[in-house]
Protein 1
Amino acid sequence: MSVSSNIAERQGRLIRSEFLHFLGLARGSLLELETQPSIALKLGHLHEEALVKLDQESYQVLGLINRLLDSLRKPEVVASPAKLVEPLETLATLKL
């Protein structure tokens, strides 16, 4: 939830530098979140299959965030809310 909340909070302000900053925070939250299932597996609270599925979904979200960061870092690209809707909708549909 922290990942999508960070992205949504700054997208609404439409200030590119802030949005980039909070995409970075969302990326950090996602990487932090990736450790939790591993710990749950070691403690016996999670099955290996669930860990694999969570890792795959996390990798997908990380790819979306990285591509969005890359596209916004290009000086010739102007971020518009319409162009950001699809990646954000995709993030919202993934269940982490």
Note: The chain has a mean pLDDT of 79.
Protein 2
Amino acid sequence: MKLQWIKDVNWKQGLKDTDLGKIADLIGIEGFIKLMEEFSKTYVYFTEKPIVEMMKDYILNNYKSGDARELARKLGVSEQFVFIVASTMNKDPNQIDIFPEAK
């Protein structure tokens, strides 16, 4: 679908108070048009799972004893989350966990 014409109308008013309007404001009208041309009529769900997995990798690669607070602030997570992830470092996969994490 060709959407370049959107730039010629009052798109801010047309998208006012909508999620699409928020997206257009965040990425700009050119990016919005590209996104809509690519994904028009497609249900898009933004899951955080890949982001959480990247956070875990980041913690595992950057954790040093005593810097949990700094990592937690940088990533926007709790210190407890950092400690839980860091506790998996160098863990023997054959070792039985006597305190399994509640699910």
Note: The chain has five helices and no strands.
Protein 3
Amino acid sequence: MPKKNFVFGKKILLLQKKDLVVMEIKMTFNELRKIKDSLPSGSMRRIAEALNLDEETVRNYFGGTNFDKGQSTGIHIEQGPDGGVVILEDDTILKEAYKILEEEKENNSEK
């Protein structure tokens, strides 16, 4: 079965650094929050367990600011319209979120 992706206006930039390719994702803060808000209850815990991260770290990825319990996740926010521009240095958490959204979509289409 072909993979489907949810797209919320993101742009992917590939930066070549010798043999290493670094991928950054740009989207608005509101687009990132829309993804988070679309996730079913318990998704932050599920993503954290799948990636062996603290749940607060996952919340911080989606704009949370609890750095006492969670860690920084390479998210940079620049002020601007639509909540500002978010640059995500690592898309691992975002990919897990997309997986959950795809599962929800499939489960809902079976009903």
Note: Residues 11-110 form one domain.
